[in-house]
Amino acid sequence: MARFGVLCCAVVLAVQLVSSLPVIPRADEVEDAKNALLMQREDLFQGDIAGIDMDNRNGILSPTKRWTNQKVPYVIDPKFTASQRAVVEVAIAQINNSTNVLLVLRTTETSYIFIQAGAVNTGCYSYVGRVGGRQIVNLQVPVPGYGTCITVGIAVHEITHAIGFYHEQSRTDRDNHVEINWNNINPNQRHNFNNYDEKTITHFGQPYDYDSVMHYGKYDFAIDRNVWTIRGKEPYEDTPIGQRRGLSPIDIAKMNAMYPIPKNPTTVAPTVQTDAPEPTN
Ligand SMILES: *[C@@H]1O[C@H](CO)[C@@H](O)[C@H](O)[C@H]1NC(C)=O
Ligand SMILES: *[C@@H]1O[C@H](CO)[C@@H](O)[C@H](O)[C@H]1NC(C)=O
Ligand SMILES: [Zn+2]
User: Fold this and answer.
1) What domains appear along the chain, each with residue ranges and CATH number?
2) Which of 12-26, 86-100, 172-186 is predicted with the least confidence, judged by mean pLDDT?
3) Fewer CB in 10 Å around end: N or C, the chain?
């Protein structure tokens, strides 16, 4: 299988990259690099977004793609082990605790996310926004030598797609904030670095966020994995991007702008602008 070969060799290259770095990376950075490869499927839009024709991107500005009553019912695949399930539950609790989005175990709702224990070579992927019916959030389970999607940060990233968010570097204004090294990206993968106009997405008046859990990492989709593909614009070229720990403060602000009603009426509503387009230049 072609994809097996690609994934296998990409993992080997990532390990080589790590061993050739002058500074010994933290263990979690090594893991992040390996796991990030699972978010770079060649057959999926931007590597981990399902259900989108490469030329027809439906924007989440569309109210029909947002979740009704801010409620996202979920089912966790019974095939996860107890410890894998626990990681997924922490990711769900993190989103649920820090935003207005209400994640609830599905009872009879027709639209819900099914968090699937993905097999080898399925990667990590999700749809963007509410599709209608049962929609899969796929998290490849750990297999020795392959990396895994079972980390809190990756699970938060994929569930955040399902809640209604694209990648941070898809923003209309991203060229003011990041540089893209097109020469190090295969021509057939360059579409992953497209951005969108304001008819498709909104950033709710929030600033560009290098710390977003939805931002690509510096080496994502690289041909030569020792060389960056995306990085902050001078003087931010060394600013870390691609963190997979969890929602950043700006991620939270944007999620609450999309879903503005606080869950608990005694909680003070976050002060965020809604749908205010940023000035462009
Ligand atoms: C999310 O929060 C709501 C209200 O704060 C709570 O009722 C619900 O059980 C929480 N869900 C999860 C999965 O933590
Ligand atoms: C979410 O909130 C619950 C209840 O307050 C708490 O027990 C739990 O540790 C929190 N989890 C996360 C990941 O924030
Ligand atoms: Zn993604």
Assistant:
1) 2-258 (3.40.390.10)
2) 12-26
3) C
